[in-house]
Amino acid sequence: MGVTDAARMLGVRAPDRSRAILVVTVDGELAVAVHDTAPRGMAVIRDARTDDAAAIAGACLPWPWMVVGSTVSVTPALATILRARPVLIFWLGAAPDGLPSHARVFTRPAALLEAVRRACDANVGGMRLAPGSGVELRDGTLLRGATLESLVAAYPDGFALPTRAFRAVAEALARHDAGWTPERDRDARMALVPSSTLVRQ
Q: Where are the domains of the chain?
């Protein structure tokens, strides 16, 4: 499916490799707000309810880039996906059991939507999200990879996941002399930090 209309596709359940924001609510209202906030073409917005969220997440290949929610619970199947992959998680209200520690909780919809906008517009050392999928480096190179997309969008925050999940990103950034690499931060989360080469300059 084309990148141009990616942000206009609410409730899509067909498998797709475009960057995806999964919105889990009881009525879909927050999905509409996220759709109106995300820049056009940046991500497919997938509207879900608690009982079908895991199945819809499974249609986001290789996994959802971001999950936004406002429900009081998540199913064990969805929680398993969120704890195993670098997914940005923005929750309105109290975080339900099962979310990883890197989930961000918001008390106001406006603050959550601003976080969504900032994630879409993230720029880390000249690296920024390309429309639809991939990360554009400062030299114009386009790198594909859901993990790198998540690291860029989460910066300066990171993910409570094993180091091995970020090795391919570290190798790709080093090959392109991007000046950044994923490392443990002071909260023991994997986040982008300036590489040793950049620090010495």
A: 6-119, 124-200
- Choose among 147, 150, 146, 152: nearest CA to 178: 152
**Angular region, 124: left φ>0, alpha ψ -120 to 50, beta rest:** beta
Give the pLDDT confidence of 56-75 residue by residue, as tens digits.
999 999 999 999 999 999 99
What is the spatial order of strands in the sheet that 142-143 belongs to? 123-124, 127-129, 135-136, 142-143
The pTM assigned to this predicted structure is 0.90
Distance CA 171, CA 70 (A): 36
Helices (H), the chain: 29-37, 53-58, 76-84, 109-120, 146-154, 167-175, 196-200
**Could you tell me which of 6, 5, 20, 124 has the C-alpha nearest to residue 66?**
20
Q: pLDDT digit string (tens) for 149-162? A: 999 999 999 999 99
Distance CA(146)–CA(81), nearest Å, equals: 14
Q: Which CATH architecture has domain 6-119?
A: 3-Layer(aba) Sandwich (3.40)
Return the sign of the alpha-carbon dihedral for residues 34, 35, 39, 44: positive
